[in-house]
Amino acid sequence: MSLLTHLLACLFGMGSWVSINGLWVELPLIVPQIPEGWYLPSYLSVLIQMANVGPLFVTLMHRFRPGALNETAVIYVIIGLGTVASFLLGFFWKETVVVAGVPRSVALLVLTFFLSTVDCTSSVTFLPFMMRLKPQYLTTYYIGEGVSGLLPALVALIQGVGVVHCINRTETLNDTLISSNSSVTFDLQAQYQPANFSAEVFFFFLSAMMLVCLVAFLLLNYHPSVARELPKGRYTNGVKEKSQKNRRWAEQNSMLDPYRPANLRSSFGTGSYSWMQVFYIFVILAWANALTNAVLPSVQSYSCMPYGNNAYHLSATMAAVSNPVACFIAMFFPIRSLLLMGALTVIGSGAGAYIMGMAVLSPCPLLVNETSGGVIMVSALSVKLISIICVEMRSSPPSAPQVFSWILFVLTLSYVKVIIGVILRDEGHSALVWCGAVVQLGSLLGAVTMFPVVSVYSYFSSGDPCNTKCP
Fold it and tell me: How far is the C-alpha of 128 from the C-alpha of 131, rounded, in Å?
């Protein structure tokens, strides 16, 4: 395999969701300077779901007019649009227009809609494009997709977005207007630190990332080294034989009706899986993406902030690290067992249930007053990284359960999503189109479910990073 092709596939995947991921991590810096305030995340959720018109159009074209849509041209258009929109955000994100007598950040919302359309449409165009390369490069693409969330988070961490210092505040209350007797109260006040560089610079960085993705896509199409890596036809003989062998192994070890008659095979893809197994795979895919892309991110601040600001930032960062790590593991251990896929989904969902439970209990979740986080321990790598970061930030380590639960949640479900992508890649181009469509459908259902719960009915209560007082 070509190292250059692996690098280009990673950079190509990195452009899939880098813009929207970057916009989310920049919210603490943007929100105080726009009229929408903290209603902006709710507006962003709606805009992202409206942008699913892009993948819907592509999926319908593949279904009713197969071959009529030029996939390469669509990718060029959406990457170019994402590059331009990110660049324009650097100039116009603070501009407002009076609408119905109220100032609104029209430019920010419109450009965000374009970015959302770009990123949502990438799910049904980037993955099918990877059919042109050997199967081994699909896992590298998923690593790049994971980096699209990790890199903006690390840059935002360097930028100092949302860094809070708790400072002592003394308040004196006079008992009477004449008496000299007075009472003194001491309290902690959250003070947000200024960023190391502006939001404009961050948006220009996102634009540069999209430009890198565009260059990587150009080289994937035209570089001679990549051309030598293209399989003959859709598969080389070796790859086809290996894919068939892997599918037979998956069937024999899935324990989902392994002895079914041949006439019960489905017409989906190559027909290697029954309709029940195809349904099982897509349900897990939709469930995993609903949890990782919509349900749990919407309550992350509620589950982590009661443990302190560091717990929030480090949980988000370590979760972002876990995504490409899971993809890297899948590169060397692509276990296609449907039984293992279900077991990992149950484990990841269990970690997600713990996170959701802590969000429901906010601002007084379990172990909120524990410095070490109780009996749930973090892996050695996580402890080392967290300790280094805490030394640099001159703060105490955050609660271990929240950091560990987010690592376990993202690690397991990210591995499941990669394995599903590898399985569907062997089923053909159409299977990957449906893979992207189900990814967006799961994310849509998760967002539609959580939006009224979080934004309309205000079911969750946030904790004060400096003054969480619980019995």
Answer: 5
Q: Are 148 and 80 in contact (CB under 8 A)?
A: no
Residue type, 113: F
Cα 229 off chain centre by: 30
User: What is the C-alpha separation between 358 and 364, in angstroms, rounded?
Assistant: 8
pTM of whole model > 0.85? no
Token duo for residue 93? 């994100």
Q: Residue 390 and residue 399: Cα distance in Å, rounded?
A: 12
Residue 232 pLDDT grade (very low, low, confident, very high; cuts 50, 70, 90): low
Q: Using CA atoms, how far apart are residues 334 and 146, in angstroms rounded to an integer?
A: 17
Q: What is the dihedral of CA 237, 239, 244, 249, to 10 degrees?
A: 140
Closest by CA to 311, choosing from 300, 320, 322, is 300
Place of tokens 């634009």: 207
The token pair at 304 is 């982590």
Q: What is the dihedral of CA 125, 129, 130, 131, to 10 degrees?
A: 120
Say how far apart CA 393 and CA 312 lie, in whole Å: 14
- Between CA 250 and CA 368 the distance in angstroms is 43
Residue type, 462: S
What's residue 344's pLDDT? 94
Q: How far is CA 64 from CA 60, 359, 428, 447, in A?
A: 6, 44, 17, 28
Could you report the per-residue pLDDT of 317-355, keeping only the tens digit for each? 777 778 888 888 888 888 888 999 999 999 999 999 998
User: 408-440, pLDDT tens digit by residue?
Assistant: 888 899 999 999 988 988 888 888 888 888 988
CA distance 97 to 94: 10
Q: Give residue 457's Cα distance to chain centre.
A: 25
Q: Is the pLDDT of residue 372 over 70?
A: no
Rounded-to-10 torsion of CA 394, 400, 405, 411 = 60
- At 470, the pLDDT band (50, 70, 90 cuts) reads confident
